[in-house]
Amino acid sequence: MTVTSAEETGRIEAVAGKFGVTWPTLFAQMVNFILVALILYKFAIKPIMLTYDERQKKIADGLQYAEQMKVQSLEAEKERHEKIKEAAIEAQKILSEARDQSKALLEQKVQEATAQAEATIRKAGEATELERQKMLSEVKQEVARLVVETTAKVLDKELSAADKDQYSNAAAENLSKNLS
Questions:
Q1: What is the tens place of the pLDDT at every residue in 87-107?
Q2: CB-based burial of residue 152 (10 Å sphere; 0-12 exposed, 13-18 middle, 19+ buried)?
Q3: Nearest Cα to 178, choosing from 139, 146, 127?
Q4: Dihedral sign of CA atoms 133, 135, 141, 146 in order
Q5: How much is the pTM?
Q6: Could you give the CA distance from residue 67 to residue 73 in angstroms, rounded to a whole number?
Q7: Backbone phi, then psi, for 12, in 5-degree steps?
Q8: Which of 18, 100, 123, 132 has its CA 20 to 30 A from that of 170?
């Protein structure tokens, strides 16, 4: 059962005839199809593809922008953490300096208070010594006066001013020697 090409062509024409297809109509439909395909490509598919490409580009740009923003956000976060660390270090430094300054000020004030206390004690000692010397001098004068009066009564005579001075000085010297 070999079918020859003439038989095959006949069969195709028979089928085409059954369906009402003729060669000039088929050719015209093919030209119309090609024209419609070209027009659709130029006015429909090409603009749609351009729009599609633009949207793809916008989406890619958006994704790239989002990635850049993510990187910038991470960098900003890292920078913020570094600044927080630097601020904490600076705060510790300031706090340490404040502690050192307060210690130095406290030590200075303690030294000043100690110096004032020592000066007050020294002045009080000097004042006490002056008061002691004054009292000793008064006691010497009083003892000398009493010695002179006692001597005058014992001798029952009136002493001259020169005698009084001589006895007073002698009594004062004796008293000074005994107290020292």
A1: 999 999 999 999 999 999 999
A2: middle
A3: 139
A4: negative
A5: 0.40
A6: 10
A7: -60, -45
A8: 132
